[in-house]
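Crash report, auto-generated. Payload:
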Amino acid sequence: MTPALIKPKPRNPVSALRLPTLPPPARSRSALRLTAAAAEGRLELQHCADCGTVQYPSRSACVTCLSHRLEWRETNGAGELISGTVLHHSNELYYRERVPLRLGTVRLDAGPALLVHLQGDCAAAPSRVRVSAHLDKSGQAVLIALPAEDTANMADDPMLREMTSDPKFRKVLVTDGKPAVGQAVAMAMVEAGADIVWVGVAEPWKQAPGFDALTKLKQIEIVPLDVTDEKSVEELAGVIGGKVDILINTAEFHRTHTVVDRGTETARAEMEVNYLGLLRLAQAFGPAMRVRAAEGSAPATAWVNLLSIHALSALPSHGTFSATKAAAFALSQNLRAEMRHAGIRVVNVFPGPIDDEWNQLVPPPKLAPVALAEAIVAALRDGIEDVYPGDVAQDIVTRFRESAKVLERELWDQ
Amino acid sequence: MSRASYEGVVIAAPVTIPYVRYSTKDAHWFLGRVLAALMKSAGIKKSRLDGLCVSSFTLFPDTAVGLTQHFGLSPRWLDHIPMGGACGVVALRRAARAVQAGDAEIVACIAGDTNHVDSFRQNLANFSRFARDAVYPFGAGGPNASFALLTSYYMNQCGIEAADFGKLCVAQRDNALMFPHALFKKPLTLDDYLNARPIADPLKLFDCVMPCAGAEGFLVMTEAEARRLDLSFARILGAIERHNAFPDDPIQLRGGWTLDCDDLYAQAGVGAADMDFVQVYDDYPVIEVMQLEDLGFCPKSEGVDFVRRNTFTVGGTLPLNTSGGQLSVGQAGAAGGYLGLTEAVRQLTGHTLGAKVEKARRGLVSGFGMVNYDRGLCSGAAILGAP
Ligand SMILES: [Zn+2]
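Recovered output after restart:
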């Protein structure tokens, strides 16, 4: 059984910091489809539309019938581990620091034989396993076999932890903890085993129901943070920037303002929080997190952005808000590209309407803050990069992929 | 239809450019040295060459084409064979047919690679699309992990033990101690083998070849031409190749030889029992056992008994890898696919550099190469005979 993770000791400030290295990131264009599915937590392999062959590694023609009609479809990862090894040596720096390391050959019930990482609890070959695709530290998909049944402390496996960002024993900053969403996220982090949860508060005088109860938890530390104020962001980064393992940016400003409504004040205020706030946070906290990305057993690991499903396709009735979320989405993609060199995962969360005061007039279903918080915890634990929590988000992302133009028209009247 | 014979075509002038662990020279340098050595050995000018066949992993961005200009050659027949451990046998097959057909008179077959301090790692990273997509990202630097998985599977299926693999490695080291080009100069004991540091379970240090730099070459021509040049030579009695055999086997337990070995012996008119020595491809000992089975030296899955019954040393029963093989000489990239051939010709012509198999009349040389994803794809074998 995987030994339970032990709470990491603080780093000796005199000892050399272990610098982040990455597993090999290069992939063919075709193989990036494995990454695209893994980013959302799915194992997808190439299926031949003509003969049904499931194949791996990805090819440009069907290995059975040479058809070019190859479709990436979700694939059952059940299979048999037919051989295993423990690697004691690697030519890659990243793996040199991580040997010994288990690898195996799994024959999927669906057909192909896969080279996979082995979670430590997989029984010796021959044994039943299930294969899943995860993003590794380089942000590209790799395969890992898990035992057929869950085991205790399964997530504490060192290789699996390389691919996930479990909040357990981690130090988390929730940038705005006063609204319902921020409170729910902070509470979920405490429940997930976070060591410290810093909760940012921009307006200490403001009352918010439930907030006092949250502040009584021993893991919670209230910190002053106003993302619209560069000085405030930098001051906090000066105090805790070198310790944050997971940053969850929940700060959001949301009004129902359309494009032709007079005035730019609302748009400016939304931009200050939703776009420039993220930019300020990235500049103040990003560099320190990158440096600490390989430190000990619970290094800096993830950055979560609360976006909106309307970052993909705008909702005219919430026009300026949609625009700021689209801007934040673009910023976040760039942040992901820059954090990748350290292996820090940037998670984008695209909820549909949240059940809060700014969506009063939006008909149900709406996403409860607690459900949103649970989705963030699950994404961190499962190593997912793009999260579409709830029925509305799922519905809209599916329609977006079917036809972005059709969706644009349909959103006109919502 | 039976395969046409290679009658009238011979292999001659085996040359080796001594191996070094690391080199600051490039592949072109090693290939230039081996070409010059071939010309010297045959006593001809390079203008007499009208065929050239090249194998190298570290020649990028050049191919055999670039080498014609690099070396000032104007061949009327040119081939580049990127088949790693099978390149020697395949080069011999291609060149022999070209000479037989009159497309070329004298073909120089050369293989060589350099080994810079970091070139091995870089070659691995760019070896193949499948390796880049589905092997390299897992930390499996090179074929070690693939062969560890294969060895582990084979041990489970066939009951062979580490000491059996060790016996092959020790026997080859005994052979290597007399071979001047071997990079490993010290005797190896079974204890040394069994107690070596682990690389990828169950593989330990002496199961794995050591990458190095070097080159090998030979000439292919008609027997009449060889006699005119007063070169000693060996005959080509039979030769086979096969690629990506048994793609549905979930893990490799057999290679392409299984499909073609009856043809090989029929073409040669001899059987496995008639071989005075065998040079098998030895990137890992499990592959040696696989070849002995697949080439009919013993039934499938009975390699373990066969290994226990034979000594494999020169002077013992079934001399195997008489120069020491890659496990003791070193793996000079694509030259590893030639090592068995040059050694076999030396044994059959009596011009050995090291241990000599007395009265050797026939020998089998086997090649295996290119772990594209999870298994070696190319297999080949040739039976050579004394004139
Ligand atoms: Zn097909």
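Post-recovery validation: The mean pLDDT of chain A is 94.
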